[in-house]
Design brief:
Helices cover 18% and strands 34% of the residues. The chain is an alpha+beta fold. It has one domain (7-98). It has a four-stranded mixed beta sheet with strand order 1-7-6-5, with helices on one face. Strands 2-3-4 form a three-stranded antiparallel beta sheet, with no helix packed on it.
């Protein structure tokens, strides 16, 4: 995968590669499809990630994760700000996301 200039460019490229789910970060899992799937830290892997810096405001910085779960046969994306480490999430989730 190449480097991307914008978040939307990266998201579109990932969708073309099959990363179509929209994951939401919860305290102890990732959710998608309106809560139908709850994917815990030991049920997914981070295949790739991309960092984007805000042009003028560091608060606009974000990370895009490309995530897959063999257990549920899901591939999707999670977008979060650099402040993810201050969110109320479990240590297991924090460690999984922080390694990238």
């Amino acid at each position: 995968m190449k480097d991307f200039e914008t978040l939307s460019e990266a998201m579109n490229a990932l969708r073309e590669e099959g990363y179509v789910e929209d994951f939401n970060l919860k305290q102890n899992c990732l959710e998608c499809r309106d809560g139908k799937y709850k994917v815990f830290h030991n049920e997914f892997k981070i295949d790739n990630f991309f960092r984007f810096e805000g042009m003028s405001d560091p608060g606009d910085s974000s990370i895009l994760y490309a995530i897959s779960s063999e257990k549920y046969h899901l591939k999707g994306q999670l977008v979060n700000g650099y402040g993810i480490y201050t969110d109320a999430i479990t240590n297991e989730m924090l460690n999984k996301l922080k390694t990238h």
